[in-house]
Amino acid sequence: MSHTIERPSRLDTARRAFSWRDAVVYQVYLRSFRDANGDGIGDLGGLSQGLDAIAALGCDAIWLNPCYASPQRDHGYDIADYLTIDPAYGTLEEFDEVVRRAHELGLRVLMDMVANHCSSDHAWFQAALAAEPGSDERARFIFRDGLGPDGELPPNNWDSVFGGLAWTRVTERDGRPGQWYLHSFDTSQPDFDWRHPAVAEHFENVLRFWFERGVDGFRIDVAHGHFKDAALPDHPGGRGPDAGHNHGMWDQPEVHDLYRSWRALGDAYEPEKYFVGEIWVPSPDRLADYLRPDELHNAFSFDLLVQPWNADRFRKAIETGLAVGRGWPAWTLANHDVHRAVTRYGQEQPLDEALPTDMIAAARRRGPADLDRGLRRARAAAALALALPGSMYLYQGEELGLPEVLDLPDAARQDPIWTRSNGTELGRDGCRIPLPWTREGRTFGFSDAAAATTWLPQPAWFGAFARATQAADPDSMLSLHRDLLATRRTHLRGTEPIVWLSPAGAEVLAFRRGDVVVVTNFGSAPFTPPSAWGALSPLLASQPLTGSATVPPETTVWSRLHRGVAA
Ligand code: NOJ
Ligand code: CA
């Protein structure tokens, strides 16, 4: 049985005027998307080949994870040269071809702006290492003398997000231990000092360089990080995973002027360029500050991503997201930094635990997962999120229902989180496994070369999730996503806000948007919508329906409301 009861006609699905406000953006983790040259690493040639599949899914845009020149110690989030493409991924000409082909298919292109830090291989950082303490070269980064009689103690107690100290001591030219530099992430990712004018000037040039090549906007990496408290005070919470949010390290007032200047730069283009921020701050009000009319267009609503499978928690996160995003938030249920949704929703998700300060920890749990249940819930969650006002970011493989690969051999793991936490945290390799395109074959169609070895090993069971197999199965996760996107286009693209429906029961979320009623049943018993909600006929359901009147457990149903007709 197909999930779409009423399939939209070809005419209905014709391309419409584009708006970032309600766009569906497909996140391409290039390294794992598709490999055209047979070296086992995804590349721009592979992306060009795969763009048709993204367009066929019904997406409006892609967000491309960093593909600039990089030693890949954090897989591209450590950039050595912002104005070139990493040779492992291709050439500038191949990049231009991706943009050209994407635009031809009606897909906008977002790149990733990693400006909090660069790679330690970047020419500026190499020059800083070679220069004297106090030099202008060092002033572009955050170099400080250490504490203690010989400067052997770090300048403060800040932890790196990836574990361990946020400071590393360098060896000076005379061979003696010298100053320390700040790195919010890995040692290979030195933080810029954004108070140095050369840094701001450099990044304006970087933005212009890619805008001139046709890029439509940027996702901004750690957008709350670019400035630190100039006094670099100790974190009163101390060190370690329970130390709490370190205010000195994040979310400083000056960062807002930076986004005002980027917004002005982007607004000078026609059409204006778009910015969406990756921002982790402890309160919705602080997040809202980044979305003032002259700052960023949008920011991810991570609050929804980290919630356990629970109606009340989802509702609160949705309400927060709508309030912060002024009615049009950027929703996401997955990305390259968290465990796959199918696995998360299949795991025991404690409800009573306070949210950890690092919300990401809630989305990278260990522990057994019931994958049937996880898939059912992930289907329902996708149908819920895609019915909300706002844009939606789908992480590659989410549309295939890929589970997290939790049992990667230790030796295969590459994420610095794994190494810096001494294996206490699994890190993010398991959500970055090269995609399966075909059921058979050594790399399940990821690589064009028959003998290729993928950069992270694919498990033997990956073939069962292949795109080609799912495309032919009307009940697959892929078909569900295609149907969701097509039906969203025809029925949910209006400007109508959501109107919550009640009484919906403790385990049910229900709302109306225009003439569509969306019901998600989080519970384990079927739910029958009350007749007061009006006469409903199902448009689409995340699980097969046994009758049109009830919503099965762990299922979302989109129904058409027949106004003026009694139920
Ligand atoms: C957030 C990115 O999404 C993540 O992948 C990266 O490791 C850190 N920022 C550092 O750039
Ligand atoms: Ca390749």
UniProtKB/TrEMBL annotation:
Signal peptide: none annotated. Residues 27-432 form the Glycosyl hydrolase family 13 catalytic domain. Gene3D superfamilies: Glycosidases (3.20.20.80), Oligo-1,6-glucosidase, Domain 2 (3.90.400.10). GO terms for molecular function: alpha-amylase activity. GO terms for biological process: oligosaccharide catabolic process. It comes from the Bacteria. InterPro entries: GH, GH13_cat_dom, O16G_dom_2. Belongs to the glycosyl hydrolase 13 family. This is Alpha-glucosidase. The lineage of its organism: Bacteria, Bacillati, Actinomycetota, Actinomycetes, Micrococcales.
